[in-house]
């Protein structure tokens, strides 16, 4: 290596190090902003209170369909609407899985949790709880035909007990039925489904929610068992150190209790849960909207992913070591980590690190685009590499510049390798996009889960989702076959 090149390389390295430091320095202050202001004031400035919940928990919170329009309903919804009204604040509901709620509040995605949450000493270390607004009991659900089999908790030795992840029920099961094997699932309908399908012998659930499931599933029953301290409370959680917000919430709760509103909320919720209509007339629109969102987010993933992929493919093919290295790191990182992790990184990272308040859909789309970008980069690179070396040499010897040869000779041939693989990528993305349901993007999978919760039927919505995914990918792969055949004719 000549001295000049060595110097240039060192300068380049220094430059990239400098850029990294600059990047980090811009990020640190953003991450470090500590909100001294009481959240009540912050929300008032914003005009909006962001409330996190997991709408899989009727009658506390669930989704329902009114004249084709999606709506949140339940005791918690009525209560937070009152809190909003009492304080002149609009309510924005952020629906996500129960086990993501505390993290979302910690990273500032939401201002408050109203999700049938039970105050526990563990949780009280992380958040402040409002006053209690609803007592609940703990119940064990089993198949009706097994009801007589379970007379004590010891009878569950080596049996499977299903609970919702990171709930008080999970704690209770660990403590009271330690000999059972525990299955923790993300959503309440899945917990009930586990018992229905025999994957689990029992599940533990808050009584108010269990009552709703039992009324809709005649094959299920409560086991004749009682926990030692089964009486629990329900409260709203907010980040620590916001006395004004806490006082405002407690004021609304007290007012609701004084006026007997909580019982009214509960009565209304019970009515809302069981409005009549056929399965499709009640829930069809969820699937339709889900399909729309799945197609949209997949197209975004593939189109912008192709743009990214193109750029990174050329970076990786370039002779510039730095560009090559960046592309290499990006592609290897994305291909070496699960999409699920990437989705959460984008979702929490955009707020915690970058200080941006992006919608779940935006975060899901960004994660899919970044993910697709890496795979498509490799597709494009392989497509270009697969064109015979002689083609470039021949083009150059005919007097074409490198760029001209690329444009006129190499790329047209490379496209034929790339297009079919891109089609496969599209099919993959349609299926993989179901993962963004974890952060609350209401695509097909998410909406199927909503219907599970709303209909208390854990199975049918999944079958419908599976059929829809299959039809989408099957049609797409037929179309791709056709295109491929056309292209091979033109050879
Ligand atoms: N009460 C239980 C707890 O605090 C379960 C709450 C589950 N809530 C829900 N929306 N899925 O852990």
Automatic annotation (TrEMBL):
Keywords (alphabetical) are: Amino-acid transport, Cell membrane, Ion transport, Membrane, Nickel, Nickel transport, Transmembrane, Transmembrane helix, Transport
Annotated GO biological processes are:
amino acid transport; nickel cation transport
- List each copy of the ABC transmembrane type-1 domain by range: 291-480
Q: Name one GO molecular function term.
A: transmembrane transporter activity
Q: How does it sit in the membrane?
A: Multi-pass membrane protein
Residues annotated as signal peptide: none
Which Gene3D superfamilies did the record assign?
Answer: MetI-like, Periplasmic binding protein-like II
For this record, an example GO cellular component is: ATP-binding cassette (ABC) transporter complex
Q: Where in the cell is it found?
A: Cell membrane
Q: Which SMART domains match?
A: PBPb
Q: Which residues cross the membrane?
A: 286-315, 327-348, 354-377, 426-446, 458-477
Q: Report what the protein is called.
A: Transporter substrate-binding domain-containing protein
Query: Its family?
Result: Belongs to the binding-protein-dependent transport system permease family. HisMQ subfamily.
Give the source species.
Answer: Macrococcus carouselicus
């Amino acid at each position: 290596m000549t001295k000049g090149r060595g110097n240039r390389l060192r300068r380049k390295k220094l430059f990239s190090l400098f850029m990294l430091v600059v990047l980090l320095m811009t990020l640190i202050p953003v991450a470090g902003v500590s909100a001294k202001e009481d959240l009540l004031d912050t929300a008032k400035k914003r005009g909006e209170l962001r409330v996190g919940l997991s709408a899989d928990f009727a009658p506390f919170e669930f989704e329902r369909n009114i004249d084709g329009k999606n709506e949140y309903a339940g005791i918690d919804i009525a209560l937070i609407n009152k809190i909003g009204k009492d304080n002149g604040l609009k309510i924005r509901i952020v629906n996500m899985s129960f086990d993501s709620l505390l993290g979302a509040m910690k990273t500032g995605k939401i201002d408050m949790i109203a999700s049938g949450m039970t105050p526990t000493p563990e949780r009280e270390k992380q958040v402040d709880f409002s006053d209690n607004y609803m007592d609940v009991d703990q119940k064990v659900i089993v198949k009706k035909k097994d009801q007589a089999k379970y007379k004590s908790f010891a009878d569950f030795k080596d049996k499977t007990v299903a609970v919702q992840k990171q709930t008080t029920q999970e704690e209770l099961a660990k403590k009271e039925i330690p000999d059972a094997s525990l299955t923790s699932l993300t959503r309440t309908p899945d917990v009930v489904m586990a018992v229905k399908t025999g994957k689990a012998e029992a599940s533990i659930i808050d009584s108010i929610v269990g009552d709703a499931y039992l009324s809709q599933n005649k094959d299920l029953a409560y086991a004749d068992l009682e926990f030692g301290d089964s009486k629990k409370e329900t409260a709203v959680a907010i980040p620590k150190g916001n006395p004004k917000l806490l006082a405002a919430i407690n004021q609304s709760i007290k007012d609701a209790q004084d006026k007997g509103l909580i019982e009214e909320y509960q009565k209304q919720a019970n009515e809302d849960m069981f409005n009549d209509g056929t399965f499709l007339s009640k829930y069809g629109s969820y699937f339709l909207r889900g399909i729309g969102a799945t197609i949209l987010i997949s197209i975004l993933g593939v189109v912008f992913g192709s743009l990214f992929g193109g750029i990174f493919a050329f970076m990786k093919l370039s002779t510039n070591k730095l560009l090559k290295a960046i592309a290499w790191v990006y592609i290897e990182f994305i291909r070496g980590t699960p999409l699920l992790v990437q989705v959460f990184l984008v979702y929490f990272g955009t707020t915690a690190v970058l200080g941006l308040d992006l919608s779940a859909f935006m975060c899901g789309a960004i994660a899919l685009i970044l993910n697709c970008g890496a795979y498509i980069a490799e597709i494009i690179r392989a497509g270009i590499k697969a064109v015979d070396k002689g083609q470039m040499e021949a083009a150059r010897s005919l007097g074409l510049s490198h760029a001209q040869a690329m444009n006129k000779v190499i790329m047209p041939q490379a496209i034929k390798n790339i297009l079919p693989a891109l089609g496969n990528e599209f099919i993959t993305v349609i299926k993989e996009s179901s993962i963004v349901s974890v952060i609350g993007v209401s695509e097909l999978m998410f909406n199927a889960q909503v219907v599970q919760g709303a209909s208390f039927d854990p199975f049918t919505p999944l079958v419908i989702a599976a059929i829809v995914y299959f039809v989408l990918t099957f049609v797409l792969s037929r179309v791709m076959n056709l295109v491929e055949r056309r292209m091979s004719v033109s050879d």
